[in-house]
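Appendix C: a fully annotated inverse folding record. The material below is reproduced so that readers can follow the format used throughout the book. The structure is listed first as tokens, followed by the designed sequence.
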């Protein structure tokens, strides 16, 4: 009988790069990925309040009329609205490419909530009136929409971001003035900036009363992206290929997918999503309390995942399998629905863009001959399981 390994990413000691606990956690995570293609991460950067706001927001989002949801089109597979598919009739998802730049501080667009974050605009109106603007051209707004935990998470992420080597930071280029990395300027030698572009969305949410606004979605996306980077740095270190991972990090983009499964009638188990591996580099799944996610072990057993608000399933995708020369196999998983409750989940999917992924030579030797050619990560086929 298998059980998915659970690894603690809440203990600050385990998160201090290079420390004994960090190295032990790195080894534990890598072994779990090798054995199961995935593991459960206990992670507390998405606070319970934020978690509740996000899942309430998801309910509102999927309640929008289908005519509006389909407006969120995309020419890229997996992006935009996906639903009404005959062989998985319970499944609906909306994917948002909310980042195209460096590291995990990514923006989920305000366009999704075209009326803006009401709480913010109301409070700023009461705190600062027109006369303050007339008098000073600015005012100080008191605003409690960003909790202390989120505030800390943002600035911790910001430290990590600016701690990256300059060679990596400058990869974040942009044709738009003031976007991308700005630094090393002789007249302002103390200054460094990294500007992240908001991706426009075609989605229009007309009459919805969202309890979750763009900030909540953005912050939970950022926190999950941070978890991805912690795990990837650990895996790269465990394999002694840290230098190979740094350039990949610079071209990692994140797709945030919001997913809903309809409930089934009666006790029958119905397929929510067919068994597959993800064509991502890594995937991190997070969900509400309704069970359904199942992971296939190497010997063919399906393990049920038992969710909790602080648990995240970290999964290797096809990209990670190729990059590790098959040492880590992509996780084969499916969703089975049972009972009368709908299920909501969030997936943060990472892709490496614009470069061909070369297999680190450190992972190839006589006993482990090269299994994959250098590949374009976007050309791996979706929705299939090799085992
Ligand atoms: O909803 C889930 O937990 C799984 C979703 C999934 O596997 C996918 O979107 O690729
Ligand atoms: Fe998947």
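Designed amino acids, in order:
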């Amino acid at each position: 009988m298998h059980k998915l390994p659970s690894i603690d990413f809440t203990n600050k000691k385990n998160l201090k790069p290079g420390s004994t606990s960090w190295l032990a956690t790195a080894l534990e995570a890598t072994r779990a990925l090798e054995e199961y293609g995935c593991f459960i991460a206990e992670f507390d950067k998405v606070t319970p309040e934020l978690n509740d706001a996000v899942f309430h927001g998801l309910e509102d989002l999927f309640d929008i009329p289908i005519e509006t949801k389909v407006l969120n089109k995309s020419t890229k597979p997996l992006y935009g609205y996906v639903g009404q598919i005959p062989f998985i009739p319970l499944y609906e998802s909306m994917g948002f490419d909310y980042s195209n730049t460096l590291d995990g501080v990514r923006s989920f667009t305000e366009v999704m909530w075209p009326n803006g974050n009401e709480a913010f605009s109301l409070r700023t109106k009461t705190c600062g009136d027109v006369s303050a603007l007339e008098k000073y051209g600015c005012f100080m707004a008191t605003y409690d929409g960003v909790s202390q935990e989120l505030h800390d998470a943002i600035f911790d992420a910001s430290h990590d971001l600016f701690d990256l080597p300059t060679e990596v930071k400058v990869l974040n280029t942009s044709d738009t003035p003031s976007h991308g990395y700005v630094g090393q300027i002789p007249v302002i030698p103390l200054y460094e900036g990294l500007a992240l572009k908001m991706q426009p969305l075609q989605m229009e949410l007309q009459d919805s009363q969202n309890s979750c606004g763009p900030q909540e979605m953005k912050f939970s996306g950022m926190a999950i992206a941070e978890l991805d980077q912690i795990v990837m740095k650990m895996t790269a270190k465990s394999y002694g290929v840290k230098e190979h991972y740094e350039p990949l990090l610079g071209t990692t983009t994140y797709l945030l997918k919001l997913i809903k499964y309809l409930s089934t009638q009666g006790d029958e188990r119905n397929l929510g999503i067919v068994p597959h591996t993800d064509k991502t580099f890594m995937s991190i799944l997070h969900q509400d309390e309704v069970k359904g996610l199942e992971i296939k072990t190497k010997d063919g057993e399906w393990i049920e995942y038992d969710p909790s608000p602080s648990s995240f399933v970290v999964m290797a995708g096809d990209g990670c399998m190729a990059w590790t020369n098959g040492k880590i196999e992509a996780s084969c998983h499916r969703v089975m629905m049972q009972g009368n409750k709908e299920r909501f989940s969030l997936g943060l999917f990472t892709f490496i863009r614009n470069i061909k992924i070369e297999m680190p030579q450190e992972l190839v030797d006589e006993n482990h001959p090269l299994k994959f050619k250098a590949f374009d990560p976007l050309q791996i086929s979706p929705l299939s399981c090799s085992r």
